[in-house]
Write a structure and sequence with these properties.
Length: about 190
């Protein structure tokens, strides 16, 4: 069952189908044209733990899992598989570019869009295509993938329509599963290099 959920999440991420709707019966209206999606995922990290907080447009949800996906052009998504019994494709992603490290144990990503997905989204190659909503916010991760340990991920964003999105994910202490899919140039601003 867990392998199936992980495979489903990876399929959604690989198709850049990272996100969703607050209520499966009432999709969030999106007023932004879709951005050009030519980047390919080059690094994927699956984190084990639970969401202490997950709010999507003001509605609280439990989550199934959280993943970090890095694109070869520098775009990063913190993707959350929403535990929504009414919608197996309910996924939300906090998305931004050019994250920064303050030290070896902290990473910060400025959010410029939310990616929203649900079973009602149009599909390409069988995968729902996320709606993109211009947003502002920030995600912070404590821990690092090289050590395969992440303590927590916190995200907070507000979209251009005033809807708020929040995440507090806490690790269960198990090692992070990191998969390098292809080699690409680094996009993290690291003051220690």
């Amino acid at each position: 069952m867990r392998l199936c959920r992980t495979a489903t999440l990876m399929g959604l991420i690989m198709g850049l189908a990272s996100p969703c709707f607050a209520e499966s019966s009432a999709p969030i209206p999106v007023n932004n044209p879709p951005a050009q999606q030519n980047a390919l995922i080059d690094l994927l990290a699956l984190m084990s733990g639970h969401c202490k907080t997950l709010k999507v447009a003001g509605r609280t949800f439990p989550c199934r899992t959280v993943a970090y996906a890095h694109g070869d052009k520098g775009r990063v998504n913190f993707t959350v598989a929403v535990d929504d019994p009414a919608d197996d494709n309910h996924v939300v992603s906090f998305s931004g570019e050019n994250g920064k490290r303050a030290d070896d144990n902290s990473y910060e990503l400025r959010i410029d869009r939310m990616l929203l997905n649900s079973k009602d989204r149009p599909k390409i190659d069988g995968l729902p295509v996320p709606a993109e909503q211009t947003s502002t916010g920030i995600c912070r991760q404590t821990g690092n993938f090289a050590a395969k340990q992440v303590s927590d991920v916190t995200c907070s964003a507000t979209d251009s329509e005033g809807r708020r999105y929040e995440l507090l994910f806490v690790s269960d202490g198990k090692p992070v599963s990191v998969r390098r899919i292809r080699q690409s140039a680094p996009s993290i601003q690291d003051p220690f290099k």
